[in-house]
Write a structure and sequence with these properties.
The chain has 239 residues and is α+β, with helices and mostly antiparallel strands. It has eleven helices and eight strands. β7 and β8 form a beta hairpin.
Length: 239
Amino acid sequence: MNFWQGQHATLSVWAWILRAFVMFLWLLLITKLMGQRLIGRLTLIDFVISITIGSIAANPLANNNDNLIGPMITIATLGMLHIIIAHFGLLNPRFRRLIQEEPIILVKDGQILNNMLRKTRFNIDDLMFELRLKNYPNPHDIEFAILEPNGQISIIPKSQARPITPADLGTPTPYEGMPTVLIEDGNILQDNLRENQLTETWVLEQLNINQIEVLQEVMLMVLDTKGRVYISKKTQKYS
């Protein structure tokens, strides 16, 4: 009972470890339900929810007098609130604009928009720093620089400043697609084999062709869309 309620009793070392383990799994479950969006790009609402959940989760892990069930219920409530807000944001653009910042143009046709810098509290040093990170140190080469809702800056270069592509040269290119991982850290990925209509026998034949006799020696085996196989062996350990 002390494990969940605290009750001003001293918890054992194993109880502290178990509380941390339970809270970790609970946060993992709630974050999983909230979706990869929260991890991939931290918008205003994501930021508020994240720091709130973090502060709530920290209290019962640092103080044995704090209740554990209460914070777990609160975290679940915040997680559900985030899911509901995200759902309504998908259905209603006006609601989405209410809870999420709009993209703001900072550079247009090579000209820095001072009024937009003041609006976003973005100084010129910060802007030039971000442009250099994107390999465009000269604002003159930029058609648009846009401050996205997650705080990142997107760069759309002028056509004269962008790298030459095969499309610019009128050169056709074959489809590349996504390579498929067949072996990872010595384990054959059965789902990927089935998706590509391959068998373990075929995989082992490819290993024999590359003079690899033991499956556990393979760190990575990848098959691209052209049928080429890439194999990386685990590095040898030397004493």
